[in-house]
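Follow-up to my earlier ticket, as requested here are the two runs.
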Amino acid sequence: MRLMMQFSACFALGLVVAGLLLIGLMFVGQFSLIDGLILTGKPLASVGLLLPEAFWNGLTGVPDAAANSHVQSFLQLCVALAQVALLLALGFFRLWYVR
């Protein structure tokens, strides 16, 4: 349980750093890097969109949400940020807790 709490704290810090990284990239105008980041989230987001349509309609309130391009791009961005946060969390965890 302690290990899970430690990793959750590292993941939360990774999410904060990933969000700040995204804001920093937007601030300096590196939208090509953001597009590349979104591209890394595309495969896992497409798997997530295979969930039943009733789930996506209930979650978003958008009819035919799985086929909506705005829902797809937002999910891709969220997955990409989660991937970056996970990599950062692994690094933080190794740095602080693994001896």
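Run two:
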Amino acid sequence: MATNGLSSALTLYGARTLTLSQAAAQAGLSEAEFIEQLERRGIEVTDSERAAALGRERPARAD
């Protein structure tokens, strides 16, 4: 992983210049890995972005 690419991607995502998907690609990471990097640096990821990236949209439970 290129540190400069990651740093640039984090900055551009934080400024909302790139989408999560675009920034992850620029950093050379999966979206899940990129979310980890964002969280380590205290950069907010919305619940909807997280759910879309991680495929965790779950149906409501009946119980």
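The only thing I checked on run two: The chain has a mean pLDDT of 87. Let me know what else you need.
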